[in-house]
Amino acid sequence: MKKRILVVAPHPDDETLGAGGTIAKFAEQGHHVFVLVVSGHLPPLYRREDYDRTVTEAKNAFQALGVADSRFLEIPATMVAAQPVHVVNGKIAAVVAEVAPQIVLCPFPDRHVDHRAVFDSVLVATRPVGAGRTIELLAAYEALSETHWNAPHIEPNFIPNWVVDITGQMKKKLAALGCYASQIPPFPGPRSIEAVEALAKFRGTQSGFAFGEGFQVIRMIG
Asked: Quick one: pLDDT at residue 93?
């Protein structure tokens, strides 16, 4: 049975960093993958042309991964939590209602303020009532470097309890990541191609295969 998968990204590139291989795998299996990008490099901290460039990069990455559809909410980066809570919740909930997903992947609530705010809103939007009753799996992905720049045991630690084998999709993940020329630094940058490949290799070998993506399951029914 084909599934509808919703991947919620705080910023363009988070979806590829955290779940690019899994997105590609779902797409190859014929599932419908929808990516929602909540915020981006908009004024007042960035120029509009910076945002437009990242959107173009994102669309190229989505094409490389096999994403079927996408949406950009255009909230300025670092300012998601500055929006009225009900507004952000409502915008994300509207997409959940539209997509009616069986699987939702969202950011882990790590050091980045936008990641935490988006995580909170996703949890509200995916409650098992209304459109949320179709959701069979809700899980959080890790995103270098934000997920690991935390204060261990003071802030939540990312401990994956679900690892997806992306050995066959690793090339697509790295190709999609390469689309983000404005966002991905050279090695030894924490979000460099080499660092992302190293994390995938680590998660994979933790689970008995070459490359993997780790997730923390929030809710699952079956």
From this structure: 98
119 touches 158 (CB < 8 A): no
* Dist CA 209 CA 53 (whole Å): 36
Distances (CA, A) of 76 to 12, 56, 91: 12, 17, 15
**Contact status, residue 14 vs residue 143, Cβ threshold 8 Å:** yes
Rounded-to-integer distance, Cα 20 and Cα 66, Å = 10
pLDDT at position 119:
98
pTM listed for this prediction: 0.97
Please answer whether residues 16 and 65 qualify as being in contact, where contact means their C-beta atoms are separated by less than 8 angstroms: yes
Phi, psi (degrees; rounded to nearest 5) at 11: -140, 160
Please give the CATH superfamily to which domain 4-220 belongs. Answer: LmbE-like (3.40.50.10320)
Amino acid at 138: L
Q: CB–CB of 163/206 below 8 Å?
A: yes
Predicted local distance difference test score (pLDDT) of residue 7: 99
Q: Where are the alpha helices (DSSP H) in the chain?
A: 14-28, 48-65, 85-99, 113-125, 170-178, 193-206
Helices (H) then strands (E): counts for the chain: 6, 7
Enter the DSSP assignment of 3.
Answer: -
Strands 32-40 and 4-9: parallel
pLDDT along the chain (222 residues), means of 10: 97 98 98 98 95 98 98 98 97 98 98 97 97 96 94 92 98 98 94 97 97 98 88
Closest C-alpha among 144, 148, 138, 200 to residue 172: 200
